[in-house]
Amino acid sequence: MTAALQTIHVGGEWRPALTGATREIIDPVDATTFALVAEGDVQDTDDAVAAARAAFDDGAWPRTPVAERAALLRRVAALLERDRERIGALESQDAGKTLEEGRVDVDCVRDAFLYFADLVADESEGRVVDAGSDEIRSVVVHEPVGVCALITPWNYPLLQASWKIAPALAAGNTFVIKPSEITPLTTVVLIELLLEAGLPLGAANIVTGPGGTVGARLAEHPDVDLVSFTGGLVSGTKVARAAVDSVKKVALELGGKNPNVVFADSCATAEGFDTAVDQALNAAFIHSGQVCSAGSRLIVEESLRERFVAELARRAGLIRLGRGTDEGVECGPLVSAAQLARTEEYVASALGEGAVLRAGGERPAGPGYFYRPTVLDRCHRRMRVVREEIFGPVLTVETFRTEEQAVALANDTEYGLAGAVWSSDEDRARRVAARLRHGTVWINDFHPYLPQAEWGGFGKSGIGRELGPSGLAEYRETKHIYQNLAPRPVRWFAGTTAKDQA
């Protein structure tokens, strides 16, 4: 237990919080405590930033050759594969997801480290710019930003950490990471793997603690050069405001309210209908809907609505809830009592505004933070449940009659993270996809992503991109080096004497 409390890592040393404060980590399946972590505060954060600053300014990592940085990221990927079962099970217990989801998360984290390792290893030493003269050498190079503050959410703690840590290290930065105080455990393990892989001490630092103190201090700290935050809109705007005074780089991923548009022609065959319904379930209820890209808004063509929603509701009622490591369980609990209460409040609000309950709408008997997958029919755009991100297993149903109406509904949101269109008409599907104002658009699919493709959103879904080449660029500064190979006087200013000219 003593070792478990040392979850703050600063400058190469694992330690408890300076105040001695701790936090209980709750198993959402039965609401019992299963771990204790250190509860850091402002002084712990300042110490971590100072360690990262020293490691960047005077340490080895920013000056490590690219090939060696890439090799370390590959070693981390190998360690993740070695410990896949252990880390997947811990992610399952900490976040409440199924064991298979935990395993998949570990695989995706491994892939992120491999992708950024390959990306930097394959780069040239800079982009040569033609200055129009053989006497000029002009090149654009990329350098690390410096000290990065990484703030991650509770729903995908390990995955979101990797989306930030892998490119930050690939670019040569040092960092301080603050995982969610609700689900910090696998991020602590990831720091251990980085150290085992040989990362120089001080390059990776972690402070476990609340967002209101640790996160806020990281965002405002003058020695932090970049803050990357993934989480809710309200917290994200606070981070952006706190970063203003020091004019640091800011990257924000703030969630979404994601449309899943289903045209009737996609369901013209039995196979097409089965696929579209199955994917609508996956879109809405994977990880109990606690996904920033969850397809929580089903926008279905009016002629298909009754048949589609009836089958969707029937299957939603059959989803098996339970502990993620138990055989046959398909969906785990919500992550906390607060998230359960939030979900219940949204459903009650929707029913009060006229939504029709077709499935779920209640918590099952027994302990834990479970909530039955819920389908709300006859929804409209004025409802809070349709406009605001819930992060729970709640699917709303809206309808359209024309393609124009479908596009208008899908784009009628403050967010713009992701969306999907289902149609057997390829021209229509591509036409609609081109008009959707969302950072990722799937055609006849939902949820897959690629580490080599950018991830991020329009509107209030955030600023910047993760993954892909742009995800690496977030952690770099661009420098233009202009070298005159044959310098001579310019003679721009008057007053030069004849003797000087001679």
Automatic annotation (TrEMBL):
InterPro entries: Ald_DH/histidinol_DH (IPR016161), Ald_DH_C (IPR016163), Ald_DH_CS_CYS (IPR016160), Ald_DH_CS_GLU (IPR029510), Ald_DH_N (IPR016162), Aldehyde_DH_dom (IPR015590). Residues 21-481 form the Aldehyde dehydrogenase domain. The keyword Lyase does not apply. Pathway: Amine and polyamine biosynthesis; betaine biosynthesis via choline pathway; betaine from betaine aldehyde: step 1/1. The active site is at residue 253. The keyword Metal-binding does not apply. SUPFAM superfamilies: ALDH-like. Coiled coil: none annotated. Keywords: NAD, Oxidoreductase. Belongs to the aldehyde dehydrogenase family. PANTHER family: BETAINE ALDEHYDE DEHYDROGENASE (PTHR43860), BETAINE ALDEHYDE DEHYDROGENASE-RELATED (PTHR43860:SF2). This is Aldehyde dehydrogenase family protein. It comes from Streptomyces narbonensis.
